[in-house]
Specification:
The chain has 451 residues and is of the alpha/beta class. It has 13 helices and 16 strands. Strand 7, helix 8 and strand 8 form a beta-alpha-beta unit.
Length: 451
């Protein structure tokens, strides 16, 4: 196995490599390519066909079961009956846009805003979109309007969306996807290779350098936007004193601090509902999406009133499907399930069990360089040797595909694609974690024979 290079997407299937695949799989891939074109990507060297799902399990048309340890969109589990019931009931009642008075959107907005604390809860507003890309796009537009500047600072391998604007601040899309000339990158807070003590001040210093460069080139700073789990950079959840010093520097320069919670929010990290809360910062804008409707397309932002005031006066905001009646029902039901079923606590306890198991595996597998993460969002960095900490994309690619053969689904992350990205639904139980660890141990043993 070799490291993925097709489109630079981690764990991407190369459609030119059809030899050796089962005839049925080959036929589906050719049909897909014809119908959908070349821009769509598949996972795994042998792509997975799925036709139904339940909880944390996916099934193909032959009835084979796959353990889903990657899909955070259906955060409360595939086909959760309470989400299905809420969507079904609302579809039978009303589905329309936000230009009519409706209680559903107001009830949800008030409930959602109450989870942030501070000024966002006391006086903030919620605005709704369909996707996280749209949410980040809207946040950036407002930031540029509010500040009169256009410079955006991001981390080195950030992913914030695939609209024209958000793709321009998403270097993880690869070298062929151009960044805006008004975009500046800072290194990820690589706590595996950099000293943990003072890492927040180091990061703030990196941001300050880029602010000065933006000002020198006449763009100035509109916003610093960050995923507090640093998901595409390789999953860095500790230390948790990184972002407060950065926020101080950003605000001193007149910019906005945007917390991108599309991947790390809604209890993913276990010890708080929102990832940024672990860092003790108060964002000007919080963006969210992915797990918000447990698979139903709903996303949005929470924003301070003074930040959106001039934008709201100068232009109207409307999204045909954003905030529609059914989307709000799905979002409300999802938030209710997270609370009612104790999924924040489950993410914390099962995540701790899973992380402890990974640390135990690291004792007997030298290719594991680092185990990190929080809650049910974990990264395992694969290295060629621990002394040099040289990354091993080969090992990560091998393991992702070896686990797929064992019917366990994960992906990879980071600049070199050498960090296993483990991100199961929040209903992942201890028994699922045990199964995952057993299969990973077997895959690691197979990897040792390859090296």
């Amino acid at each position: 196995m070799t490291a993925p290079v097709y489109g630079k997407m981690n764990n991407a299937f190369d459609p030119s490599k059809l030899d050796g695949l089962p005839p049925a799989t080959k036929g589906r891939i050719k049909r897909r390519s014809r119908a959908l074109g070349p821009a769509y990507r598949l996972f795994y060297q042998q792509p997975v066909e799925v036709c139904r799902a339940q909880g944390v399990l996916l099934y193909d048309s032959d009835g084979n079961e796959y353990l889903d340890a990657y899909n955070n969109v259906v955060s409360v589990g595939h086909c959760h009956p309470k989400i299905i019931a809420a969507v079904h009931q609302q579809m039978q009642t009303l589905c329309t846009h936000t230009r009519y008075l409706q209680d559903g959107i107001l009830d949800y907005a008030e409930d959602l805003l109450s989870t942030f604390g501070g000024k966002l809860s006391a006086s903030g507003h919620a605005m709704f979109t369909c996707t996280g890309s749209e949410a980040n796009d809207l946040a950036l537009r407002i930031a540029m309007h509010h500040t009169g500047k256009r410079g955006i600072i991001i981390t080195h391998e950030a992913y914030h969306g695939n609209s024209h604007l958000t793709a321009s601040i998403s270097p993880s899309l690869g070298d062929n996807s151009p960044l805006g000339t008004w975009v500046r990158q800072i290194p990820a807070p690589d706590a595996y290779r950099l000293p943990k003590e003072g890492l927040g001040q180091w990061m703030a210093g990196q941001v300050q350098k880029q602010i000065q460069d933006l000002e020198r080139h006449g763009d100035g700073l509109a916003a610093f936007i960050v995923d507090s789990a640093f998901s595409s950079d390789g999953v860095y959840t500790h230390p948790t004193d990184l972002l407060a010093p950065v926020a101080e520097v950003v605000h001193a320069a007149g910019g906005l601090f945007i917390a991108d919670e599309v991947q790390s929010g809604f209890g993913r990290l276990g010890d708080s509902l929102w990832g940024y809360q672990r860092h003790g910062v108060a964002p000007d804008i919080v963006t969210m999406g992915k797990p918000m409707g447990n698979g139903f397309p709903v996303a949005g932002i929470a924003i301070l009133p003074e930040v959106v005031e001039s934008f709201g006066r100068a232009m109207r905001y409307f999204n045909t499907f954003g905030g529609n009646s059914v989307a709000m029902a799905a979002a409300q039901a999802t938030l209710n399930v997270i609370r009612d079923e104790g999924l924040l606590e489950n993410a914390q306890s099962v995540g701790r069990f899973l992380k402890d198991g990974l640390l135990e595996l690291a004792k007997s597998h030298a290719s594991i360089g680092d185990v990190r993460g929080s809650g049910l969002y974990l990264g395992v960095e694969m290295v060629q040797d621990r002394s040099s900490k040289q990354s091993s994309p080969f090992a990560a690619t091998y393991l992702v595909n070896a686990l797929r053969e064992r019917r366990v689904l994960i992906s990879a992350s980071g600049f070199d694609g050498n960090s296993l990205k483990i991100r199961p639904p929040l209903v992942f139980a201890k028994a699922h974690a045990e199964r995952f660890l057993n299969e990973l141990d077997g895959a690691l043993n197979d990897l040792n024979k390859q090296q």
